[in-house]
Amino acid sequence: MVQGVNNQNIELNKDWLQGYVDDWVKFYSKHTKEGELASYIPLLTQSNKEHLGISITGVDGFTIESGNVDIPFTIQSISKVFTFIVACMERGVSYVLDRVDVEPTGAAFNSIMHLEVKQLKKPFNPFVNAGAITVTSLLNGKTSDEKLEPIFQLMETILGYRPRLNQEVFESEKETSIRNRAIGYYLVEIGSLESELDLTLETYFKQCSIEVCIKDLARLGTILANDGKDTDSDQEIIPKQVARLAKALMLTCGMYDASGKFAAYVGIPAKSGVSGGIIAVAPPRTRNENLPFLEGCGIGVYGPALDKQGNSIAGIKLLRHIAKQWDLSIF
Ligand code: DON
């Protein structure tokens, strides 16, 4: 239990906090054995199933990291948060929300069922694949690289470097994308896509193949925790309305058919990806001065062993523990 940590003296207590987080990562690492690597994208099976790491960056810049912190991995579905943000910035929030809804599905990320069974004219939300592919089709640009450029630029502004595209993972997914092609053809049939299917899917597979590490996810998370403003300059990077909408969607839909449990037991906006990454955002809280990261923080987790829903099995357990210890829940 972290007790008696005064935020004013946080630097003085860094070693102490670090010790706790190291213990927690070590403890929860054993749960990696219970999960499986994503195998439908063949290259993801090359990850080390036993890896688990966490990076937490406060809005004030204070950072704690532990475990396997330097492993690069592809962002996968976490990219959906940033394509949604960029689409809203390029086309306007109401334009995007006319084409994709904001309701959780309770179904798997790559499910097509609701669209067909309920005869929907727009996908349920931007984080299930049907919604994400629709949002990707809304991005400005005639080529996949043109469409993705503003996403790379947004990340470069926040991270201070331009992330690379992992070409091997992109090709691995492109070659094995039968389900996403099926979803894509269905979206073409109901008139959801604004750009041609092959271009849209190529852009979607590339956005999923952007390579990051947990420090990057934590830093991206701090901007969302800070309602879209740069934590150093206070300049607006993402409009507040868009940052808040993205967080609401992360809370309700970010962990797919485990979003309800994550909201109940962890209680902060988060988004997972099948490579094992999770980005989580803890907004500022004021109720207990003796806890760290009171001004809000971004959290990046990496643990490629996944549960049935496609979320990092040990990563979720670790986040649940930290949220409880540090009272991070927004509720
Ligand atoms: O659509 C796909 O299959 C992937 N490239 C992204 C899916 C994903 O990360 C789902 N997350 N848990």
Task: Provide the descriptors you would attach to this structure in a database record.
Beta-lactamase, EC 3.5.1.2, disordered N terminus, alpha+beta, two-stranded antiparallel ribbon, 13 helices, 331 residues, binds 6-diazenyl-5-OXO-L-norleucine, 2 domains, hydrolase, five-stranded antiparallel beta sheet, globular
Topology:
Blueprint: H1 14-29, E1 53-58, E2 63-67, E3 73-74, H2 79-91, H3 93-97, H4 113-117, H5 129-138, H6 144-159, H7 167-175, H8 178-189, H9 197-208, E4 211-212, H10 214-225, H11 240-253, H12 259-265, E5 270-272, E6 277-282, E7 297-302, H13 313-325
Antiparallel strand pairs: 1-2, 1-7, 3-4, 5-6, 6-7
Bound molecules: 6-diazenyl-5-OXO-L-norleucine.
6-diazenyl-5-OXO-L-norleucine binds at residues 76-77, 109-110, 129, 173, 180, 208, 272-274, 310.
Could you explain how this protein is built, in words?
This protein is α+β, with helices and mostly antiparallel strands. The protein has 2 domains: 7-75 and 212-325, DD-peptidase/beta-lactamase superfamily (Beta-lactamase, 3-Layer(aba) Sandwich); 77-208, Beta-lactamase (3-Layer(aba) Sandwich), CATH 3.40.710. Helices cover 44% and strands 9% of the residues. It is built from 13 helices and 7 strands. The strands form 2 sheets. The protein has a 5-stranded antiparallel sheet with strand order 2-1-7-6-5. Strands 3-4 form a two-stranded antiparallel sheet. The relative contact order is 0.20. Residues 76-77, 109-110, 129, 173, 180, 208, 272-274, 310 line the site of 6-diazenyl-5-OXO-L-norleucine.
